[in-house]
């Protein structure tokens, strides 16, 4: 399978304007206190934890909580004043979902469903102190069941959602003999079901639906989000209890469908206890494939909550108010909590009648009211045990701005002997020899918190920061240099349980296949606003090796001597061709000869030697010997055109350790499939040289190899 890799070193293009960034919620004068949550649950921060963080004397009304750039509504066990030892802050905690991923897509509306994140399930919350008031709160509200005169509501419109997380669907592909994908988050890319083939549709049986048989007769709604996964014509076919709904819905090729079918008859749910849903692609090709991201069914249901401990539901407006009698909810003998999201109310349920939870709700004109019923049993809640202090770096301050941006990971700040080669690289770039830039190092952990909402490995952390720097830094950055290896999100997500994943993903990249260019591109575009490149180091020693080579390389470039002895090798170039047969070699040679004619012309006057792959072993040996000699004599540029993988080319350029070219490092320009893709999970990469991809070998060989790999 081929992948399009967008990782050039230098591209110069202008920046356009952009909307509000992910750091817009931060007050840089405040200290924040971080904690992480990985599941949806009633969450409490008890006073001893607050006190341990130095917040024991803060009045309850002054606490403020943030998640993903939005303030989170809380309940405080005392409305005002200092919390006692048994008091707490309470809120409905949520895992990280796919909503922050929406901005990563070519167009936000092509994201399928946002239940699950493509990066991580773990959300980061930021607690702070805001004395200005107006902090969002749930207010304790009375539940006057004793004087109730309203009849009990017979039903509500229940929505049952089914989200799939069986595979990360790669989405839209160009089929040119094989499937070729772009690095952009594209149509159909995201968590889905396994592939569905025509013989065997996706079937889901939903039990315990508690249908209200006397409900409105034409008020069932069905939604579905599905995508084609092969270059074939087809229709999407959806059935409820064996009855087709929505007709044949065209969904050819890699097209996406988000459909809502309303006003279905209640009789379509011909069982009071379960719903059977079947989704398939109507195709004449047995090998055709589709995938489903999510579907939902909305229908009238009784207030039987299936012994759940947490139950979300919705009600329509009612100017008289509502009386709810909920059965079969798991209270464990403790009054449950009802969060009224619209009204910001916290209401305790009346459980004085065995088997029932009762509420009297105030009148409301809100078209759709949202509620969450939560068991008050302590075992049903999670407690935050530690808070980590966080003060954000204000990049609006001129002292924190640079025109040569180095983004790196603190793990690389020590080579094992106390030497910080990342800082030494910054110093070099700030020196006269290194270009006299105002070079600054930016910690990826800080960028993750500030521009990525604290979401681990989220591409927005880098993209939003680069956009911010282009908007705010004076002067604007000229270059972005990432120091630290990365993984595609697909490689990281599928391997994050392995401790090696953190060592191999020090600074995240964008998409699958990986693209650093898209980290520097505005949303929906694929050209960088500032030139960007990466040194895929996994330890400080590798950073030092490259820094020494760079100093040596640029010193030779800047040498005032213009003799043939000192500089003649810079005119030497190597062209290599790796076709699969003589016909391809001839075809590729046409292109390469065109390049050769340009570079040998008077504007540069290069000397180019060209070699093509051959099956004759004696010629192969001669080529290999001559290539080694050329490297030792000195080459400024090596061009390869042909077949390849991340670890090898189809011609004798695969052993850079054999080339003795100290101080004469060429720039490698490789036109071949996946050869630049070092964004992969490879357990051998930290262990030994053989675990490196070919591009990494050329870059990290000490005083050998190349200075760049494109």
Report the average pLDDT across residues.
94
Can you name the CATH architecture of the largest domain? 3-Layer(aba) Sandwich
Total domain count: 5
Total of DSSP H or I helical runs spanning 4+ residues: 11
Record the strand order, biggest sheet: 5-4-8-2-30
Q: What Rg do the Cα atoms give?
A: 31 Å
| CATH level-1 class of the largest domain | Alpha Beta
Binned, the helix content reads 10-25%
Through-space gap between termini: 20 Å
Shape: globular
CATH topology of the largest domain: Rossmann fold
Structural class, by secondary structure, is alpha/beta
- What is the H level of CATH, i.e. the homologous superfamily of the largest domain? Gingipain r, domain 1
Strand content: 25-35%
Count of extended strands: 39
Major sheet characteristics: 5 strands, antiparallel
Characteristics of this structure?
710 residues, alpha/beta, Jelly Rolls, 5 domains, five-stranded antiparallel beta sheet, five-stranded mixed beta sheet, 16% helix, globular, disordered N terminus
Question: Secondary structure elements and their pairing?
Answer:
Elements lengths: L1 E2 L28 E6 L3 E6 H6 L10 E5 L2 E3 L2 E2 L11 E6 L29 E7 L9 E3 L14 E8 L3 E4 L3 E2 L3 E3 L7 E4 L9 E6 L12 E9 L6 E6 L2 E8 L5 E9 L9 E9 L7 E12 L2 E5 L1 E9 L3 E8 L7 E4 L4 E4 L7 E6 L2 E11 L6 E3 L4 E3 L13 E5 L12 H10 L8 E5 H8 L8 H13 L6 E5 L5 H7 L4 H5 L27 E4 L4 H19 L5 H4 L4 E7 L3 H18 L7 E6 L4 H17 L3 E6 L24 E5 L22 H7 L7 E2 L1
Parallel strand pairs: 1-13, 3-29, 9-26, 22-24, 31-32, 31-33, 33-34, 35-36, 35-37, 37-38, 38-39
Antiparallel strand pairs: 2-8, 2-30, 3-7, 4-5, 4-8, 6-7, 10-21, 11-14, 12-13, 15-20, 16-19, 16-21, 17-18, 17-20, 23-28, 24-27, 25-26, 25-28
Helix pairs in contact: 2-7, 3-4
């Amino acid at each position: 399978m081929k992948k399009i890799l967008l990782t050039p070193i230098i591209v110069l293009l202008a920046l356009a304007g952009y909307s509000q960034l992910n750091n817009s919620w931060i007050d840089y004068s405040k200290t924040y206190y971080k904690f992480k949550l990985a599941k949806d649950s009633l969450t409490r921060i008890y006073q001893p934890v607050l006190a341990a963080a130095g917040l024991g004397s803060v009045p309850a009304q002054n606490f403020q909580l943030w998640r993903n750039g939005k303030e989170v509504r809380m309940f405080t066990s005392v409305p005002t004043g200092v919390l006692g030892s048994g008091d707490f802050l309470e809120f409905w905690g949520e895992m990280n979902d796919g909503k922050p991923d929406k901005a990563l897509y070519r167009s936000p509306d092509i994201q399928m469903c946002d239940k699950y994140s493509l990066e991580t399930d773990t959300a980061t919350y930021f607690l702070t102190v805001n004395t200005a008031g107006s902090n969002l709160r749930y207010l304790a509200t009375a539940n006057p069941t004793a004087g109730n005169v309203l009849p009990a509501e017979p039903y509500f419109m229940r929505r049952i959602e089914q989200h799939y997380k069986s595979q990360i669907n790669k989405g839209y592909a160009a089929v040119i003999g094989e499937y070729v994908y772009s690095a952009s988050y594209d149509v159909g890319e995201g968590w889905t079901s396994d592939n569905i083939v025509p013989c065997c549709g996706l079937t889901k049986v939903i039990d315990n639906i508690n249908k209200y048989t006397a409900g409105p007769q034409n008020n069932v709604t069905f939604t579905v989000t599905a995508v084609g996964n092969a270059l074939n014509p087809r229709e999407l076919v959806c059935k409820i209890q064996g009855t087709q709904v929505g007709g044949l819905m065209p969904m050819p090729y890699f097209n996406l469908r988000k459909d809502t079918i309303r006003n279905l008859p209640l009789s379509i749910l011909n069982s009071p206890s379960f719903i059977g849903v079947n989704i398939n692609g109507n195709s004449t090709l047995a090998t055709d494939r589709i995938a489903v991201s999510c579907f939902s069914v909305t229908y009238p249901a009784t207030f039987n909550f299936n012994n759940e401990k947490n139950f979300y539901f919705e009600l329509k407006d009612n100017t008289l108010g509502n009386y709810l009698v909920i059965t079969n909810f798991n209270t464990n003998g403790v009054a449950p909590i009802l969060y009224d999201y619209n009204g910001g109310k916290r209401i305790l349920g009346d459980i004085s009648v065995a088997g029932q939870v009762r509420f009297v709700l105030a009148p409301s004109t809100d078209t759709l009211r949202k509620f969450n019923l939560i068991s008050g049993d302590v075992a049903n809640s999670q407690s935050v045990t530690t808070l980590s202090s966080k003060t954000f770096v204000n990049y609006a301050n001129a002292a924190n701005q640079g025109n040569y941006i180095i983004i790196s990971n603190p793990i690389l700040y020590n080579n094992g002997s106390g030497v910080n080669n990342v800082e030494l690289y910054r110093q070099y770039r700030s020196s006269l020899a290194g270009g006299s830039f105002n070079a600054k190092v930016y910690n990826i952990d800080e960028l993750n918190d500030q521009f990525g909402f604290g979401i681990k490995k989220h591409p927005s952390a880098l993209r939003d920061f680069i956009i911010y720097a282009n908007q705010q830094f004076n002067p604007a950055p000229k270059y972005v240099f990432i120091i630290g290896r990365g993984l595609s999100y697909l490689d990281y997500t599928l391997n994050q349980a392995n401790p090696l994943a953190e060592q191999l993903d020090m600074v995240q990249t964008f998409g699958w296949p990986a693209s650093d260019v898209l980290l520097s591109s505005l949303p929906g575009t694929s050209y960088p606003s500032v030139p960007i490149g990466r040194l895929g180091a996994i330890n400080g020693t590798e950073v030092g090796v490259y820094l020494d080579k760079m100093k040596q390389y640029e010193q030779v470039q800047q040498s005032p001597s213009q003799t043939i002895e000192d500089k003649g090798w810079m005119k030497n170039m190597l062209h290599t061709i790796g076709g699969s047969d003589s016909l391809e070699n001839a075809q590729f040679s046409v292109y390469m000869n065109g390049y050769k004619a340009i570079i040998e012309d008077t504007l540069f006057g290069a000397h180019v030697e060209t070699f093509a792959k051959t099956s004759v072993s004696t010629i192969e040996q001669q080529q290999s010997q001559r290539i080694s000699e050329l490297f030792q004599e000195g080459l400024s540029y090596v061009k390869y055109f042909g077949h390849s993988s991340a670890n090898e080319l189809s011609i004798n350029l695969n052993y850079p350790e054999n080339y003795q070219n100290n101080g004469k490092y060429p720039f490698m320009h490789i036109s071949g499939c996946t050869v630049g893709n070092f964004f992969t999970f490879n357990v051998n990469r930290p262990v030994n040289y053989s675990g490196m991809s070919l591009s990494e070998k050329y870059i990290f060989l000490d005083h050998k190899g190349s200075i760049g790999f494109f």
